[in-house]
Each structure stands twice: as structure tokens, then as C-alpha cells.
Design a protein that fits this description.
Blueprint: H1 3-16, H2 35-44, H3 72-85, H4 90-120, H5 127-148, H6 151-156, H7 158-172, E1 178-181, E2 184-191, E3 194-196, H8 198-219, H9 226-230, H10 233-246, H11 250-266, H12 271-290, H13 293-300, H14 314-324, H15 351-384, H16 388-412, H17 430-448, H18 451-459, H19 462-469
Antiparallel strand pairs: 1-2, 2-3
Helix pairs in contact: 4-5, 4-15, 4-17, 5-17, 7-8, 8-10, 8-11, 8-16, 8-17, 10-11, 11-12, 11-16, 14-15, 15-16, 16-17
Amino acid sequence: MPADERFAVRRDRARASVPCPLAAAPAPSGVPLPDGLALRGRLATGARRPGTPRGSGRGGPGSRTPRTGRGGGPRRTYERARRAWDRPLTAYYVILGSSLLITVLGLVMVYSASMIKALDISKPATYFFGKQFLAAVIGGALMLLAARMPVKLHRALAYPILMVTVFLMVLVQVPGIGMSVNGNQNWLYLGGPFQLQPSEFGKLALILWGADLLARKQDKRLLTQWKHMLVPLVPVAFMLLGLIMLGGDMGTAIILTAILFGLLWLAGAPTRLFAGVLGAAAAIAFLLIRTSPNRMSRLACMGVSEPDPEGGCWQAAHGIYALASGGWFGSGLGASVEKWGQLPEPHTDFIFAITGEELGLAGTLSVLALFAALGYAGIRVAGRTEDPFVRFAAGGVTTWITAQAVINIGAVLGLLPIAGVPLPLFSYGGSALLPTMFAVGLMIAFAREDPAAKAALAMRKPGVRWKTMRRRVKKRPSGER
């Protein structure tokens, strides 16, 4: 046998004795591999089989998830936000979180806005803050109590709260018992530095009593008749309005009127009936404003940019100055200039102006966003319930808080007359804070009463959660799990 043939035989035997697949190295040119080795080599090197499309192997482009368009990201974010908002406990958390944030931020701004005012009347710098903090603690207890009370107990308390409120509002008008503050005879002296304004509790009383009345009439299918829709709701509301107007408090009367209209709208009042009540209220309001020089001067101060030479519209103009000097992020907490005697009532009716001056546009927009979230959550609670009392009461509370916030902020911005109403949960005033926090607790209780929310809260209990999250695996004969 020639030498070259012997060399070829030894080479083929050496290749055949290799245990690993002969796929990494290609065969030398001119020397063919056996059919089995050639097939194994092509499979190991990733060569595609006949009829297989390119990119369909493992790791190829064909196995990748198809990319979405440019709008996939925002759309996915929107879908996640929508699913999060549709969860059963969303309204519960939004009401609780937004109300607490507004209250805490209000405490900070009350302390900042009232320091100079307290020192001016020879009191400690924390005088107004201490009273507001005490009212917030009591209001927090009332909110927790209202949130834990069942709906039936709230309905049972409607008539007692109304009767006690009417008695206190009548007591205010008794000479020697009632007090006059800033020209309004709407206060009761409680001893020490504490006073009480019963008309603030009239808002809560009208909501609870009106919601219970309308719910009972709806159960009997009487709301289709206009006389049952108006009587006795409108006469009782006018009685409360008359007691409030005897003291000269036009701002509280406007809020009470807004609550009445909100209840009538939720009850399904027809347009002609709604327009008739609205026209009568507007005529009475015009008469009351026209016959009072003080109210006419407040109406004339809408949209002013500088005070009159005689000192008129001083508060409205300096409220605009405070907002204008704040800029984007404000002058800093505690660095307000207008609170040094330029702006009257900086910690009550015009605390929003001090907020704009010290925290800027970012701070004011944050406050507006919190009120918007609270109002939207209240609308959601009223719209998703099947209980008519819950729907009327939640709608009434939402109307109360949002209408009062709009009137207060509109007056600071110069878009509405100065009505003298505080910013809910934010301005100084324990008489306004206590019933408002109880009303927030009322909405929290309604949000908890939703069947889906009840189930979600029940799943959060430790025993139930452990049973649902536990893996139930049958025990193996060997004792292993």
C-alpha cells in the first residue's frame, strides 16, 4: 500500500475514534465526512434544517416578542393607572390620604401665617397653632369614630344632631349668651379662649337629616311628586338659613344653600323645579346684598388690583399681592411679607394667599390637587352605592367641601366676592374643622361599606390572608413536602 493511502486510513480511523460530536471543526477540503457525522455537525453548529425559516431557531429574531409602537409605553401606563383606580379600596385611601394631607399642611400654614398676628395681640407665637392643633386632635378622634360607625347609626343620629344644632343656633341670638365676632352674631362662649360657632354644625345636620328624609321617601317612591321632594326639606333648610342670617353670616348661608341644591339635584328634581328654587334663592340673596353696605362693598371688590385711596378693598388687593409675589416656588416657609400687618385675617379666610406667597404656584396647585382628589373620590362613593342614604349623604358632603373650597379660593383670586368662609380642613378655626373632619369620617365609612371594599378589607386580616396565601401541598409518603 502506498504511503499516502496508509496516511489517509490512519487519519480516518483517528477521526472516527473521537467521542465528541465532530461539529466544531469543518472537514478538510476534499475529504468527505460520513452522512451521520455530517448531519450531527450541522445540527450542533446551529445550521438550519431544510424548510425551516430563518430566525425561527432558539435565540433567533423570530423568537423575540414583537415590539409595540411608540404609544405602547403611555398606553400601558394609562391602563395600569385605570386598573389601580378601579380597585375597591381606592376611594377609601384617596379620601383618607387627601384629607389628612390637607389637614397637616393646613396646620403648618396656620403656624406660619399666625405668628405675627399672635405676637401683635401679646400672645405666644404658637397661640393660634396650639388651638388649631387641639381642634385637629379632637377632629381626628371624631373622624375615626365616624369611620367606624355603621350606616344605621349615622341615620339614627340625624334627628338628634339637627335638634341640638337648631337649639344652639337659637341660643346664639339670646342677648348675654351669644357673642359677636367681626360683626356676626354667630358664636357661643365656652370659657377661656374657646368659642363655638353652631352654624358650622348646621351644614352637617342638614346633610344627615336631608339624606335620611330623601332616602325614606325614595323607598316609598314618593320623590316623583314635587311636594314630597320639597316638603319638609326646603322649609327646614330655610329655617336654618333664617337663623344664620339673623347673625349676619352670609358666607355660611351660601354654603348651606349649595348643600340644599346638591340634595335636590341628587334626588332628581326636575329642571323647572330646580330653576324655581334657584331663582327664589337668588332673589333673596340679591335683596340681602342690596340692603347691606358691607356686602355691597365686598361685591365691588371683585377683580381689583389695588386698594382704593380711602382704604377700600384693602384685603382683596393684598391677597392678590401675596399670590403675585410668590412666583413658582414661593419665598420660603415663614418668609411672607403680607402677614406683617398688610393682609387682614392671614390665617383664616386668606390663608390660601399666604400659601401662594410662601410656597408659590407649586404649593397652591398641590392644595388644589388634593381638594380635587377628595371631591372626585366623594363622587365615586356616591355614584357606586346602591343605598340611597349613602348616595345623598356622600353627595351632600362632597358638595359642601368643594363648594366651600371654590368660594374661598375664588375670593382670594378676586373672581368671587369675599364671603368670609374658611378653606375646609386648611384654615384656622376649630368650629369649622370639627364638623368637617366628622363629615370626612362619614365618607370613609361609606367607602368601607361597599361590598367589594368589605371583601378586600376582610382579606387583609392576618388569619384570612395566611389561609389564602398558604400553599396546600399533599404530604408525601416519605414525609417531605
